[in-house]
Design a protein that fits this description.
Layout lengths: L13 E3 L5 E4 L12 H8 E3 L6 H10 L4 H7 L3 E5 L4 H4 L20 H10 L4 E7 L28 H11 L3 E6 L4 H5 L10 E5 L14 E5 L1 H16 L5 E4 L16 H11 L4 E4 L5 E2 L14 E7 L3 E4 L11 H6 L6 E4 L2 E6 L15 H11 L4 E6 L10 H17 L9 E5 L2 E19 L7 E10 L2 E8 L6 E21 L3 E9 L4
Parallel strand pairs: 2-22, 4-5, 4-16, 5-6, 6-9, 9-10, 11-15, 15-16
Antiparallel strand pairs: 1-2, 3-14, 7-8, 12-13, 12-14, 17-18, 18-21, 18-22, 19-20, 19-21
Helix pairs in contact: 5-6, 8-9, 11-12
Amino acid sequence: MAVSRRLFVTAAATLVASSGTSLALASSAPAAAPVGSAAADEPWYRIPVSPDDTPEELVRKASRVRPTERQIAWQALERTAFLHFGVNTFTGLEWGTGDEDPDVFQPAGLDTDQWARALRDGGFKLAILTVKHHDGFVLYPSRYSDHTVASSSWRGGQGDVLRSFADSMRRHGIKVGVYVSPADENQYLHGVYANGSARSEHAIPTPVAGDDRTGGPAFRLPATDYGAHMLNQLYEVLTEYGPVDEVWFDGAQGRIPPDKVEKYDWDSWYTLIRSLAPDATVAVSGPDVRWVGNEGGLAREKEWSVVPVQDKDNGRTDFALSYDAPDMGGRNALVAAQPVADHLQWWPAEVDVSIRDGWFYHADQQPKSVQQLTDIYFGSVGRNAVLLLNVPPDQEGRLPAADVTRLREFRERIDRELPEDLARGARVKASPGTVTVDLGRAREVDRIRLAEDIRHGQQVEGFVVEADLAGTWTRVAEAGTIGACRILLLAAPVRARRWRVRVTRSRRTAHLARFELYRSRT
């Protein structure tokens, strides 16, 4: 039968292999489990586990976990951008101190349209701005802090980087993300952060003198003094700057004394975000997306989106295994995590890495080479993760020319690596556990892209790709997981007319959404 490059057909046909594995072509039929809002998908997005579960039961439960609609949309982005910008840009620090003079912030040539054009031309679909880093300096005029752009003489105290950023990104078709650091050293200096206050109910938004807001949604949420401060700032960001598609947190505590710890109000923060921005993913100290475990740009060789988690510290979704464990969701990992795991959860990996050595701009640093960025792409997007590439604006408020050029070169290189799907429009045949593609004539192939239809979960544990060479099926590549995307690079081009992917092990029926073949032009 002839089908499109994504192998979508009108009805999924389950194909049971003699080995016990099974494979289905993806269809337009709904997923086997409901997805959507947090309330509706809770039994499927995360499934409880217990110490009494057998290894087989753990695998069975893992096979039933399904992503939410927001997670499906997020994983389809593939390339997202980070923009670290703030007082550190002008002090030369990576972690600020919280007592900076706001007047140091002077981006005289701020041009967020230039940021957006460069990111669009680089192939990025979402960008996250450091609205507040650990130093506590806020890139919009917050009602709840004096450590903001409004306290700088830049633009006469009327500047608003977040407003400019959000407007520019949307103008150029890029989704908007915000990083609001939980750590806040400025508020520590003011006796709010890590002051030992107990949690109590707070009205959000908390009224302030001269507050002109009327008619918006109101909340009463439990929080510490600082937790309420964060809730108020999140409320501002999520109600005054248009739709937000990702809220990015980390778990840092900043450079405060080791005996001073702020126990973050994760449950209240999540509740506010879900209420005000229900489509936004919450990462990486959040329930939707996890940190891959390194800042080098690489996902695991076998990267699972279904992983064991535990609930900690006021409802924070946390790792059941070490964040840098070599196996996060395989069969052995499910068993190893069992003593502490509360749930198996769809918690896909985000790979954050900077185009330069630092996260903030430093004049003496240069961007990574095109080859380095290409390796990062295949080691992140090509391994079932989403790439989050940091590109820091300079002191003028522009992306450096060298970085802009490198972003364009990076996109052009990926376009040459994966130029034309040779399997588009080809004849596809399904047999037990196998999908075969007939290209019509022999073609050279050196890049193979696969994807599961993750609406049905992540199921594949092992597969091989074979080419028909002189009448003999010959193995040319093999790997373990597939997930939302798997890209295999062949050491040398292989010329064949017929190609097939054969699932050798899966947890449940595997639904293949993509089987694409390329000949790179590099």
